[in-house]
Amino acid sequence: PFVKIVQIWHADGAIKKFGWEDPTTDKRSRSDKRRFQKVYDHFDEYIVASKAMGQVFVHSYHENFDKMQLLGYPRSDQYLSQDWQHKARERIYRSAPELKNHRVILYAPTYREHQDFKLPKGLGSALAADPTALVVVKLHPVLRDKEVPMRRIGNPKIKFYHELETSDLLAVADTLVTDYSSVAFDFSLLPNAKSIIFFMFDLDRYRSDPGIQDDFLNWLPVEPVYKVEQLRNEILAATSVNFDKFNAHWNTYNDGQATDRVIARYVKFLGSN
After folding, report:
1. CA-CA distance, 272 to 253, in Å (whole number)?
2. Cα 220 from chain centroid?
3. Domain limits for position 246
4. Whole-angstrom Cα distance, residue 178 to residue 199?
5. CA–CA separation, 4 and 148 (whole Å)
6. CATH number at residue 18
7. Among 265, 79, 68, 271, residue whose Cα is nearest residue 189
8. Residue 195 to residue 54: CA distance in whole angstroms
9. Do 139 and 192 have their domain in common?
10. Is the domain of 42 the same as that of 155?
11. pLDDT digits (tens, 9 = 90+) for 156-183
12. Distance from C-alpha of 85 to C-alpha of 219, rounded to nearest angstrom
């Protein structure tokens, strides 16, 4: 039987580089590179939510844009569903009722492979600079030991909810503090998204491994910050962010109906074979 292999990426957009765009790929052996491309060439189609993400795959996997299907990102549908938003808030408030009626600042940085990675000194107090807010720290499970310095502060306004899903926490956050993580593309779709801060304290290192999209400063909805003191100032300013251009660039085809379009395409394909 004929088989069609479809790539539905784990993220709606890309701040990081990957594939051939990752600077470390150049250091790999020829056999590794052949193996990588053999894997990439197996994909018949890519489900994307924007031409921007399609171009990322073109450059990262050396693929043709013809393979890109501009259908929207299925997982984005939940963020555009009022029913999902309501249930996500209910799930959070059931476990963490203290978050209700507060400004919630969610710190959700991306995963880092470097074993010597350290969160910058003073980060906890900067995140908690707004006395009226509660801060939720959500690190990747591999990096949980990096929470220790912030836990030692003992600030009751800094919370750690390992059992709660990041996607649900996005539904109650007023401000997202992240860096190179794809959560930014999800958060920007939510009606509660008031502001976002890109805290890129290790940008120089991250540019070399795994790399950052070359044009990221052109489409981020706000200028990134690099120092803890800048982060503190942005937390206190709580400046509202307009996500319209950012969403037009990355969430172009995300309208809450992406899953239906994807299913319809491949049901039709199955019916014709």
Report:
1. 26
2. 12
3. 77-250
4. 6
5. 47
6. 3.40.50.11820
7. 79
8. 27
9. yes
10. no
11. 999 999 999 999 999 999 999 999 999 9
12. 26
* pLDDT score of 112 more than 90: no
Token representation of residue 262: 């994807």
pLDDT band at 1, cuts 50/70/90?
Answer: low
Query: Distance between CA 57 and CA 40 in Å, rounded?
Result: 10
Residue 1 lies in a domain: no
216 φ/ψ angles, rounded to the nearest 5 degrees? -60, -30
- Please report where in the chains the tokens 């069609």 appear, as a residue: 4
**Encoding tokens for residue 166?**
């990041």
The answer on 94 and 64 residing in a single domain is no
**Which residue in the block uniquely carries the two structure tokens 């555009």?**
80
- CA dist list (Å): 73 to 54, 85, 123, 256, 258: 12, 17, 33, 9, 6
Six-digit token string for 123: 């980060």
Contact between residue 177 and residue 203 where contact means Cβ atoms under 8 Å apart:
no
Q: For the residues of 67-85, what is the DSSP string, one character each?
A: GEEES--TTHHHHT-HHHH
Q: Are residues 122 and 39 in the same domain?
A: no
| Phi, psi torsion values for 137, nearest 5 degrees | -100, 120
Residue 259, SS3 per DSSP: helix
pLDDT at position 115 over 60 = no
Structural tokens at position 109: 């940085």
Q: Using CA atoms, how far apart are residues 268 and 266, in angstroms rounded to an integer? A: 5
What is the residue type of 2? F
131 & 23 share domain: no
For 43-81, what is each residue's pLDDT tens digit?
999 999 999 999 999 999 999 999 999 999 999 999 999
Q: Would the CA dihedral through 256, 64, 44, 55 be positive or negative?
A: negative
User: Closest by alpha carbon to 188, among 117, 112, 150, 244?
Assistant: 244
Domains of the chain: total: 2
Specify burial of residue 4 (Cβ count, 10 A radius: 0-12, 13-18, 19+).
exposed
